[in-house]
Every structure is written in C-alpha cells, then in structure tokens.
Amino acid sequence: MSGRIPQTTAQVRVLKHSWQIGTIEGEVSAGDFVWRFQWRFRRGQLAIVPSQGRALIQEPLKRFLEKSDYQLEPGGDYSFTIRAQI
Prior knowledge:
Blueprint: E1 8-18, E2 23-30, E3 33-40, E4 45-49, H1 54-68, E5 77-82
Antiparallel strand pairs: 1-2, 1-5, 2-3, 3-4
C-alpha cells in the first residue's frame, strides 16, 4: 500500500444566486454522482438532492461553500478536492 490518500475532484456549477433571499443554487458532481444543492448562506443550511450518495458530498461541499460563497457567481464553474474516492 502506498499510503497515498485517495482524492476526487468535485465540480460545482452555480445556477442561481440571490443576495436578497440569501441563497445559492447549483449542481455539484463527483465521480459518477450529480446532485442539486441549495445553500442558505445566512443560516448555514445546505440542502442536497437526490439523497443517493449525499453523505459523500455534504460536508466537503458545505466547507467549500462556507469559504467561497461570496465569490461565487451564477454561470460560474468551480472545483474543490475531496479526500476520498467517489
């Protein structure tokens, strides 16, 4: 065993952003999975559908959004690394 930590790159596409409501909506994909999400950044609430595979992406996506939410623009494509093989 090489001791190397497995990694997966997750791709994020922002579809809608509302400063008035305090939400960002978009899609995130990693491995063979694709999810839709809504991030309520004023409340720190993240909703992800479908539920299949959600446990794999929920915490890494939330950390990414907490760090980057004010820099994300509708139509933008972003990525982050997950320390797991998905």
